[in-house]
Amino acid sequence: MPVVLVLPALLGLAFLLLPMVGLLVRAPWRTLPARLVGAEVGEALRLSLVCASLATVVCLVLGVPLAWLLARGDLPGRGVLRALVTVPLVLPPVVGGVALLLVLGRRGLVGQHLDAWFGVSLPFTTAGVVVAEAFVAMPFLVISVEGALRAADPRFEEAAATLGASRWLTFRRVTLPSVLPGLVAGTVLCWARALGEFGATITFAGNFPGETTTMPLAVYLALETDPDAAIVLSIVLLVVSVGVLAGLRDRWIRGAT
Length: 257
What we know:
Layout: H1 3-25, H2 32-36, H3 39-72, H4 78-85, H5 87-90, H6 93-104, H7 111-118, H8 126-151, H9 154-162, H10 167-178, H11 180-195, H12 199-204, H13 215-225, H14 227-256
């Protein structure tokens, strides 16, 4: 390979890897086992895993039909709609949290009716964490599934229809298996993004230990008072994220691209 490409590539690799190496070098390895079994780490990790998984389920229920609509629906202004769906990818997460407050807060456009009619208040609750994570993470799923749907050959679906298969049967037995790599890849990316969400969560759901303090929020708090604890929490997040992505990448993500 030409040196003009290798050198910037190595610099880019170092730029991405050195912060992780620094995290591992500065880790308090002697006290690491005791800190890992501490209540603070376990509680924050449990809440993070539960909320990220629930947010991913929400994204699957809402995002897969949305991706199908963008890929196969004949809608006017579909390009504008696609751009709006991907806005959370570039929107600062704290701005997303403010937007959620204005819509789902107790005085928000929708939240005031939820509170008055059903007594439901989402901000500063565990459910609010799930909503904030789903808002930020859903575009990852939608983009992956939409791309897979666009790449799928529609002739197989047409053949199934000519053989008398219903639309639901065609979707379940033909369309879904063909887009499965993209669906799994989008789900993994969505879950990983939800696991690491910080800005929208702290703005919309606050920071209440045991209720809304996820791992990223716990890292932020510990950094001010106990840097070693922040490093331990960061390592846990790093290991979980890298483990999930590395374990599924070769089998699914490569097949989706």
